[in-house]
Amino acid sequence: MAMSKRILVRGKAFGDDEGPLVCIPLVGRTADAIRAELESVISAGADLIEWRADFFSEIGDSRAVLGLARELATTASGVPLIFTIRSAAEGGQPIPLTVEQVSRLCADVCSTGSMGLVDTEMSTEPHCIDIVRTAARGSETLLILSFHDFTSTPDTDALFRKFVRAQELGGDVAKVAVMPQTPADVLALLDATLRAHTELDLPLISMSMGPLGVLTRAAGWMFGSSVTFAAGVGRSAPGQLPVADLNKIVGILREALQQVGQ
Questions:
Q1: Any catalytic annotation for residue 197?
Q2: Which of 58, 111, 140, 147 has the most CB atoms in a 10 Å sphere around its CB?
Q3: Entry pTM
Q4: Is 175 a catalytic residue?
Q5: What are the structural domains of the chain?
């Protein structure tokens, strides 16, 4: 299997073919709830932790966000954090911030040096992507450029173009998440991921959501997806498996591949 560009995020390798990094989201609404979640996530052995800050009730208070970002990074003890404010249009929580305010807050969080990665949607206005990308480059934070469709799955070519677009916009990692309506939709996502893994030179994150898409969360890494998301205390998207179950399935697949290869 071809390999996308391999990059390191604070010691964690994106782009390996040996198995996915497991990311667990923090979806608490209060600082105390998020602190408690973080302790649980660290105990579960997460490779990555995503702070879904759109769930945070104080998202409109930049000082609270920046302070908590620094605190989480310290408590995480080296586990890379992803900072994400998902828009309501792409499955996030409603928040009292404009698109430009979100971008500037993401840039400010990058400037703290607390996050290993920051997620920005490709649908964001170009000048807002520029704001985040510039701050990410200046702070050695990696930029995930993402696309989410919580209602349907575009065809294979359209999905592949999303990965291409992330590379064209200067993303360090391309992420595509879609909702399948049929098993054929799941195959379209995996096909597009494999093609992007072969033809592009940046790490990928991809998944089909919901019950039909569970296969991609457990085995998407075999098609080139470098990260899979598991449920911790809560879920940030439909179809996320409990982390213990996901680790067990991935372990079985790894062992089976090794046995076949002997």
A1: no
A2: 147
A3: 0.92
A4: yes
A5: 8-261 (3.20.20.70)
